[in-house]
Amino acid sequence: MKSATLLAAVAASAVMATAGLGSVALAADLPSRTAAPMAPVEPIVPVFTWTGFYVGVNAGYGWNTNDSNGEAFVPGVGYIGSSDSDGGFVGGGQIGYNYQFGQFVAGVEADIQYADLNSDNNNGYYYSGAGGYYGSNSNGVEWFGTVRARLGFAIDRALIYATGGFAYGGGGGSNGGYYNGYYFDNSDDIRTGWTLGGGLEYAFTDNLTARVEGLYVNLGKSGNNGYVYDTAYAAGDRKDTEFGVVRAGLNYKFSSF
Hints:
single chain, eight-stranded antiparallel β-barrel
């Protein structure tokens, strides 16, 4: 009896051990629980903005928009005189700042330019056998600069804008003449006025932009008020010094981030 009981206990232990080994094997066959790999994070690309300081250069063509005509009156002859108005190269540099809010861009810009703009008006006559007069007026411009406000509308990297403000310049205005062998001169120095225009600018990169711009510049009146000798009159020529400019430019925009 004791032997039978011992054998039953051994058999039960063997069965339990076998069941335990099967559970371990079944657990080994189950898939392991691991976390799914994370997707790579894309770098955040900043949206382009026109906000920031910039410096640049420009070059183009300018032309006088005022055809000034000088004339002189000679008794028994009438008025005589001539005029000449032409254009030439303009070029220089600019510096400015833009601030973008929504699709609108506001800014301020200052520039200084070399200008090959001349407008000469010659008028003269010969008076009596011993005396004579020859006079000339010039309201050309050899250099000019502007300080302007800008307001534009941005379409992504393109900017359409209007601009206007203060203008100054000079270097080409003088009034002189000969009378009885004597020469007199009344030269103009710096003249001031205003300017108005507009343009289109495009940003090829975040830092490099190119533009095409047109300006009308008016530097006020220059010339003389005329000369009188006896019954002869040499008419003066007080006309506006005004000219147009079309120019292309390149700007380097400093990062605004």
